[in-house]
Amino acid sequence: MESTRERSRRPEEGPSPARAGVTRERPSGAGPSEPVDLVVEYLGLADALAHRFRCPGHDPEDLCQVARLALVKAAKRYREELGHGFVPYAVASIEGEIKHYLRDQSWMVRPPRPVLDLRLQVRSVVPQLQQRLGREPTAGELAEELRVPAERILEAEVADSTMVTPTIELMDRDEGTEGQPVSIPACEDPGFAQVDAAQAVAAALADASPADLELVRLRFGMELTQSEIARRLGTNQMHVSRCLNRLFKRLRPRVALDLPD
């Protein structure tokens, strides 16, 4: 029969890290982890990150779903033999998916559907090219990989800068106000350091000519194709294409896009 002293040495049982939202790395000597085990163990981490990125206008349940799906993907891709901890890798993967989700839902001027579709294609091939090249691919290399004109890659990348940065509700941790939501602009949050503010686009177009502004309005505001723009302006599609290409290249240094010369 177990003695009172032996029972007193037994640590108290508590909620699992996944249930409590607290995570810990597996011991270095532990055996390989199955993806399902990692998902179960770190489910609380995904939910905690989703809670951190709460945004007005976005269903918290949707954010949790995005975070959990990202956790599943991270668990499947994780290679324990590389010696890197799972938690840092999972956090980066989950935060990245949440940011992409928020960006996709936060357009200042929604680009035409073909531009959005190409943007998704670009995002899908970037990791492959990064691994193959050992660096960030240029717009020209993306165009070659996707077999599309370089100017279409420019459109897709410029479209990334027409995002409205949403407001995020973070839980205030200051003494005396713990648990109170505090709204701050996402651009001030470290997790959104890479999100282009809409003000950058406005500043880039501040000295644009009326003709350039009209091109932007027709292409991204009215979602017209280059041929439709040409007919409306009484010119040809080739001229419109050259004008848009010139405009995108001029915007490059102002919105920090990696476009070819």
UniProtKB/TrEMBL annotation:
Biased composition, class Basic and acidic residues, residue ranges: 1-13
GO terms for biological process, alphabetical: DNA-templated transcription initiation
Keyword Nucleus: no
Keyword entries, A-Z: DNA-binding, Sigma factor, Transcription, Transcription regulation
Region (Disordered): 1-35
A Pfam family matched in the record: Sigma70_r4
Keyword flag DNA-binding: yes
Gene Ontology terms, MF aspect: DNA binding; sigma factor activity
Domain RNA polymerase sigma-70 region as annotated: residue spans: 38-107, 121-156, 209-252
Protein name (Swiss-Prot/TrEMBL): RNA polymerase subunit sigma-28
Native source organism of the sequence: Sinomonas atrocyanea
